[in-house]
Amino acid sequence: MSDAEIICPVCKKEGAHLCSACKLVSYCSKEHQKEHWPTHKAQCQPFNMKHSLDLGRYLACSRDLKRDATVISEHPLAFGPKIVGPAAQCLGCYQPLEDPNDPKVARCPRCRWPICSNVCFGVIHKDHHQPECLVLCNNVLVAENNNFMYEAIFPLRCLLLQKKNPRKWQQFMSLESHVNERQNDVEINGGDNLSTMYTHILWGTQARRDHLKATKYFLCKCQRCSDPTELGTHLSSLKCVGADAKDETVQCQGTILPISSAENADWKCDRCPATLTASHVADLMSRISSDVDLHIENPTVSKLEQFLSKLDKLLHKNHYHCFMVKHSLIQLYGRESGFTLDKLTDLQLARKIDMCKELMCTIDVIDPGHGRAVLYSAVVQLELQSALEESSRRAQSIADKNRLLAEAKVQLEACIRDLAQEPPFSAGASVAGIAKSRLIELLRKMKKLKTVES
After folding, report:
1. What is the CA angle 194-196-202, rounded to 5?
2. Regarding predicted confidence, which is higher, 328 or 22?
3. pTM, 2 dp
4. What are phi and psi of 255, to 5 degrees?
5. How far is 415 from 436, CA to CA, in rounded Å?
């Protein structure tokens, strides 16, 4: 921070209070910070709105942002329980509850809906559960019969805004205030576009572009979509099945890629003249996609290994269809009867580790912040950790045991860090809990091994 930035812009005295949001300006007092806010607001905002012919209106970063910086933050207008199944949940904090028939489960004394406790902040807060409680009290038989229609709570809370908070009701009716908080999952340089992904990150370029064209009405020209190799991952690349130019008895082994990033561009081998049309590739991918869905519906190790060997003749080893098959396969190695970790041969265990590392290398390129593919990466990290621990158990030397356990520890720590922003009670939070438990057990093993070594 320069000398100019530590001077209060209001009175020119030395500033002691740094702006907590942008950390670019200091103030001598909170009063002067409030006074200067109308002027500083534009500078403090981490983005500017811009316009282009291709994108229309878009946001550009106004300054460098570190990973996990809060870009946009708003209080939600209303929120309610997630519709995840028949299980009961607290209307105050949404904590999953045990069987509501159990007399130990607390209930709201007025509407009789199940709650986590009578002192839950959300239950007793005058602006959260209490307004709807007055409505639910009109028919306590619904709750007494355990007919909890959680899908009605959120719409009810929205409707109650009409009387409870007319200003929020007007915002709600404009359908614009829907974001509570957004953070960047990678470092962003000032001037770079702020963007999100509207499609599946693990699809190939053609599938992603077709989806965006059909649903968002634009042709994506991001760095990944503009690169035929998809940033070197080859998530869409095909293998050439033609004959080698020098020896017709041997398969070419070249890689077939789009000749350009233009829409509907032809695909060409990088070693021979073989060419495919975009429609031919799309038809091939559609048929392979159906086969993938069929094979991973009720998968077994042998079934997926055989299928993967067939795909290997047509697709690059990193192709997104191969990715999905391998992602299922690494979970079967270690769980399927006859293939539990302790039953795996050394070659099978090594294969599981190699596949995990392959998948992580791909994810690290297309999703370096592990934001969009976080559940996929978390599963890979946990599978890799378990395989490394098993390898450590089989290792002969203390040095190898320690090295493998240290690698496993890195995977668990990365998994926990990546899942830190997942909402409570979500699938991501559940996986994070597993990773934390495993880390505690792993540290215990490492401590015990260190004791043996000394």
Report:
1. 135
2. 328
3. 0.74
4. -110, 130
5. 9
